[in-house]
Specification:
Number of strands: 12
Low-confidence stretches: none
Oligomer: single chain
Distance between the termini: 83 Å
Order of helices and strands: HHHEEEEEEEEEEEEH
Mean pLDDT: 80
Radius of gyration: 53 Å
Number of helices: 4
Helix content: 40-55%
Largest sheet: 6 strands, antiparallel
Number of domains: 3
Length: 310
């Protein structure tokens, strides 16, 4: 559109210039230049008229489009104002409970000031809630650590074994003078202290002249590892050993005993947590001596073997 307007301005200027020349310089109608310029002036006038019509039509269409856009914009603005009014009414309804609460809590203040006071109070409540959540998280973490701290650790041991003895009754059992270790956990790398499960007295049950049971509760003594530590420390242990004492092994017809059943149940803080159970028969050789402590050793990650919950 801008190009047509520039062109028509040029045509109008040329037409005026040609008319000026025809009036004052080449006014002799008999000359060829007069006729040529006159014909050119006619052509420029027709072209100017044609372009002017086109520009008028295009301007009219552009104005119609502009008016349509303005009408649409006005309609959109009206819709926006309606939405604002509608939302304003909704907002008033939503703010009504807060306004009632604010004026009730601060009756001596204007409604706007009361709302500001209530807003400040709510902000303070949010801060207090955030601080309370942080304290709760800290307490939860401490409680979780407390739950995972080993305070008591003991094992209920049941070992059923048999041997061929010379005569009855079953030989007498050796009792310790002090707390004695009959089971332990070890870290073969030596980085962790050995966990010793002890008893002041051992309990044997004689089934017959060939079969007996070593059944005892063994405990970790206060002040020794791993009491006071988190249960995670148990992951580092990779060897478990257990044994039991008895006397009169000279009366054995064969210098060996046969372990028929083993059940060792571990308790942490009074709750069952891990168990070793086997009915595989294991032969243990003995020395011909008045005292023997036959035992077995298991290697591997102890918490995985016993299914200890960490």
């Amino acid at each position: 559109m801008i190009y047509l307007k520039v062109i028509i301005q040029i045509i109008v200027g040329l037409s005026g210039l040609i008319a000026l020349f025809l009036d004052y310089k080449w006014h002799d109608k008999r000359k060829k230049i007069f006729k040529t310029l006159r014909n050119l002036l006619i052509i420029l006038s027709v072209l100017s008229l044609f372009i002017g019509v086109i520009i008028t039509i295009k301007d009219d269409k552009a104005k119609d489009i502009e008016i349509g856009n303005l009408k649409n914009g006005l309609k959109d603005a009206q819709n926006t104002l309606y939405d604002i009014k509608s939302n304003g009414d909704t907002l008033k309804e939503q703010l009504k409970p807060f306004l009632e609460l604010a004026t009730k809590k601060y009756p001596n203040l204007k409604s706007s000031e009361a709302l500001n006071k209530l807003s400040e109070r709510l902000d303070n409540v949010d801060v207090e809630i955030s601080n309370s959540k942080e304290k709760i998280n800290n307490l939860s973490s401490q409680l979780n650590d407390e739950r995972k701290t080993i305070k008591l650790f003991h094992a209920q041991v049941y070992i059923e074994f048999s041997g061929k003895w010379d005569g009855a009754p079953y030989p007498s059992w050796l009792q310790p003078n002090t707390a004695t270790t009959y089971l332990n956990w070890k870290d073969k790398s030596g980085n962790l202290p050995t966990i010793n499960f002890t008893a002041n007295r051992v309990n044997f049950k004689t089934i017959d002249n060939q079969n007996a049971v070593f059944e005892n509760k063994l405990s970790v003594e206060p002040g020794t590892a791993p009491l006071g530590e988190l249960i995670d420390i148990l992951k580092g242990y990779n060897e478990l050993g257990f044994w039991f004492p008895f006397v009169d092994s000279e009366r054995l017809l064969e210098q060996k005993i046969l372990v028929n059943k083993v059940r060792i149940t571990f308790y942490i803080n009074g709750r069952k947590n891990g168990e070793l159970y086997s009915e595989s028969k294991t032969e243990i050789p003995l020395k011909k001596s008045s005292e023997n402590t036959p035992g077995l050793t298991i290697e591997g990650n102890i918490t995985e073997l016993l299914k200890v919950k960490i």
